Amino acid sequence: MFHHVKELQFNARVSGPDPRFATLLLEQFGGANGELKAAMQYFVQAFSVRQPYPDKYDLLMDIASEEFSHLEIVGATITMLLAGVNGELKDAAERSDLMRLLKGKSEREQLIQEAATAPQFLSLTGGGPAVTNSQGVPWSGAYVNANGDLTVDLRSNIAAESRAKIVYEYLMQFTEDPLVIESLSFLMTREIAHMQMFTAALDTIQPNFPPGILQGDPRYTHAYFNMSNGRSSRGPWNQGQGPWGPGESWEFISDPVQEVMQTRGNTQLPIKGTNLTPEQVLQKNKLQSQQRSAEIDQAIKSQQNPWSFSGKP
């Protein structure tokens, strides 16, 4: 159940019209890293966790709902930045300054260049936001990442919030309107907060690495293949203990071609860097498989299986 409150979550304001920036801001309305994408992604992800992980369902639906609120803020800001455009377009009998600009080809191109927009932005939307990115590409459900595994989805969400945050950071460089910057700063900061929420939620799921159920083949989990010529850079991603505990380390393979030849295409690569055996991997796979399956089965074992816990079955 959704209930719309007419007040915005943040009181969006603008100092004056700015069609150029309104066009750029479309990126956060209907773009691949925008608010609609985030809202739909978390909304879709929530369905598969409703019963086995009701706490994560609550988290995903809360943030999805907030993202719809942010979509409204962005849409309102775009509309205010285009103030006057709709009225001029409606003044079909009395040709306004805008209409006079549209008379000739060169004038049309000049207006388009100045507004930094595709022709359809003004001609089809009439001064309001469009469900496209800043280049006029329609929003797509392909932007939504929902894999049905909570650890995978939470990592996708952390990445999505990171990308949205940096887009707001970039957008603030293209406007000098202090009121618009204030709104964008609010939206950017909420991306940071969501990042932390998803990170904290991921930490409550143990074990959560690797994502999914199956463990990696111990012959390859600790191997770093030096796949480029010239000077090799070393760091905690390819030397030392890395992210593992004591007794485990990276195995740096300096000559992958020679390694492939000597190990029959890596099919006979020895286990190095870890004490985990293939038998232990199979056991871990079995235990985690049973654990995750049981979490879901126990949550939906009731015969009537109500969706709304608080309602009547």
Structural class, please? Answer: mainly alpha
- Give the name of the CATH architecture of the largest domain: Up-down Bundle
Count of individual helical segments = 12
Secondary-structure element sequence? Answer: HHHHHHHHHHEEHH
Side-by-side strand order of the widest sheet: 1-2
Which bin fits the share of residues in helices?
40-55%
Count of the separate structural domains: 2
* 3D shape: globular
C-alpha end-to-end distance: 17 Å
Number of strands: 2
Residue fraction in strands? under 5%
CATH topology of the largest domain: Ferritin
Mean pLDDT: 88
Biased composition (Polar residues): 282-293, 300-313
Pfam families: Mn_catalase
Region (Disordered): 282-313
Keywords: Calcium, Manganese, Metal-binding
Description:
The protein is mainly alpha-helical and 313 residues long. It has 2 domains: 19-203, Ferritin, core subunit, four-helix bundle (Ferritin, Up-down Bundle); 223-299, no CATH class. It is 50% helix and 2% strand. The protein has helices at 19-25, 27-30, 35-47, 54-81, 85-90, 97-101, 105-115, 119-125, 150-171, 178-203, 256-262, 278-299, and strands at 223-225, 251-253. The chain has a two-stranded parallel ribbon. The chain is globular.
